[in-house]
Specification:
The chain has seven helices and three strands, in the order ααααββααβα. It has helices at 21-30, 32-35, 37-51, 53-58, 76-84, 86-97, 113-121; strands at residues 59-65, 68-73, 104-109.
Length: 123
């Protein structure tokens, strides 16, 4: 029978009883591995609304660790634009998360595979 590597470390008991899906989702979100990804997923989903359509096509939120939002830009000019707007982006991202968790923004240019896909899709 297949199993997850972490299954043996679980502390909750497994039963065959049905459980409401909302309880399952809530329990998963309390686990560190899932809860850490939720803020960046929220930002990714709302990115065009937060930074505008044009900037959203050339940038993406990559991670949020220790209050630092890492943004990847497709090239230097878009990276410069994101740096110019960094404080506005920080404020909007922080408001979108509603937690006071975005303390700073860091911009990096290029990202390997994503950058190549972005260039190919533009023509």
């Amino acid at each position: 029978m297949p199993h997850s590597k972490g299954f043996g470390r679980r502390v909750d008991r497994r039963t065959g009883d049905p459980v409401p899906i909302g309880d399952v989702v809530d329990a998963l979100l309390r686990e560190d591995v899932f809860s850490r990804g939720m803020p960046i997923a929220t930002l990714a989903r709302r990115w065009p609304e937060l930074v505008g359509e044009r900037l959203a096509r050339a940038t993406k939120p990559a991670s949020l660790e220790g209050g630092i939002l890492l943004i990847r830009a497709s090239d230097g000019p878009w990276g410069a634009q994101a740096r110019f707007l960094a404080e506005q982006i920080r404020e909007r991202a922080d408001a979108a998360l509603g937690t006071g968790s975005v303390k700073a923004v860091r911009i990096v240019v290029g990202s390997g595979a994503w950058d190549e896909r972005n260039r190919r899709s533009q023509g």
